[in-house]
Amino acid sequence: MQEPHMDQEARLLAAVKAAQTKAYAPYSNFPVGAAIIADNGEVYSGCNVENASYPEGTCAEAGAIAAMVMAGGRKIQKIYVIGNGEGLVSPCGGCRQRIREFAHADTTVHICGPEGVRAVMKLHDLLPHSFGPEQLHTHSAQE
Ligand SMILES: [Zn+2]
After folding, report:
1. If DSSP codes are grouped into helix, strand and coil, which group holds residue 97?
2. Please, which residues have CB less than 5 A from ligand 1, an ion?
């Protein structure tokens, strides 16, 4: 029997690769997939969706986060991101902030290529001294 950890990694690699195949990237020809495992144990995925009006395109991470939120998930345990090529396809600055919104102290980012996981980082290391919901809640009358 495999360790649960290995089962989860295989599950997330399969999900992120499947998401990448759905990418709509006719302009960059750079398909990206993202897959989240939330604290509820569910997996949510997304792909990049480009647009003829280039700035309107969205990143794979944004799609995965939207799917998670839509289904009721609120905390990202791990997020896998996959792209082709030699380099590390790490989340862009905007997506680091998007992930941050739903991250906790131990949230990890797993950067993948076609052969598998290339690097694992804590979100905290990708976005140190970040701004998050806590800062607003300090001054919010609503929560
Ligand atoms: Zn991004």
Report:
1. helix
2. 59, 92, 95
* 42 part of a folded domain: yes
Percent of the chain with pLDDT over 70: 92
Q: Within a domain: residue 143?
A: no
pTM of the predicted model as reported, rounded to 2 decimal places: 0.92
Which domain CATH number covers 85?
A: 3.40.140.10
Q: Judge whether 143 counts as a catalytic residue.
A: no
Which structure tokens are listed for 79?
């997020």
Count how many domains the chain has: 1
CA angle 22, 23, 29 (to 5 degrees): 135
* Pairing between β-strand 76-82 and β-strand 103-113 as defined by DSSP bridges: parallel
Give the structural domain span for 32: 4-138
> What spacing in Å lies between the alpha carbon of 141 and ligand 1's midpoint?
31
